[in-house]
Design a protein that fits this description.
Helix content is about 25%, strand content about 35%. The chain is α+β, with helices and mostly antiparallel strands. It is globular, with a radius of gyration of 21 Å. Strands 2-5-4 form a three-stranded mixed beta sheet, with helices on one face. Strands 8-7-10 form a three-stranded antiparallel beta sheet, with no helix packed on it. Strand 4 (about 90-95) and strand 5 form a beta hairpin.
Length: about 180
């Protein structure tokens, strides 16, 4: 009989813990929208400010990134991923592990390149999840994530006739 008092409390604690884990898994730091400006600011300081904006921690080796390089730009309502892409111009790969955003140098361009971007509906401006993006010649492909983002590596890319095709299966439901 004494345990019946604690059952509702335990159930509430479990629900709160589950909700916290669910919310933490849904929020990608790379997809958080930010507005941040820099005028000749060293990269290290800019990354510190950006990390506070997105609520994460950048992890990188100062010997592989030029942390004294000055950053100038106005990034208005962009995802953290878009800001990083603009700042590093594709020279750095990034991924999220928990609260850490890990930055590593991209492989040399002549051997391998990374193709990445967002698939966006032209009419609504909405990002499209679960779309397939592929190169019809090499058949390399990627599926967009829940934010419409895709990424894949291309080894020894040929510059001429490079194209990507996007496919999205649309389920139509009719109610009569």
């Amino acid at each position: 009989m004494r345990h019946t008092f604690f059952r509702p409390i335990i159930a509430i604690l479990l629900l709160l813990g589950s909700y916290h884990n669910l919310v933490a898994q849904q929020i990608s730091l790379l997809e958080k929208r930010v507005s941040i400006e820099a005028q000749g600011e060293p990269l290290e300081g800019f990354l510190n400010r950006l990390s506070k904006e997105v609520g994460g921690v950048f992890s990188y080796s100062p010997s592989t990134l030029d942390v004294n390089r000055n950053i100038t730009g106005n990034f208005s309502d962009q995802s953290c991923r878009e800001v990083l892409e603009e700042v590093f111009d594709g020279a750095v790969n990034y991924k999220q592990k928990g609260v850490y955003l890990i930055l590593t140098p991209a492989p040399p361009a002549e051997k391998e390149i990374t193709i990445s971007g967002y698939v966006v509906d032209e009419q609504s401006g909405d990002r499209i999840k679960n779309a397939t993006v592929y190169n019809p010649i090499t058949l390399q492909s990627s599926t967009t994530d829940e934010f419409g983002f895709f990424q894949f590596q291309v080894k020894n890319p040929a510059e001429e006739n490079f194209q990507l095709i996007v496919n999205k299966k649309i389920m139509l439901t009719h109610y009569w």
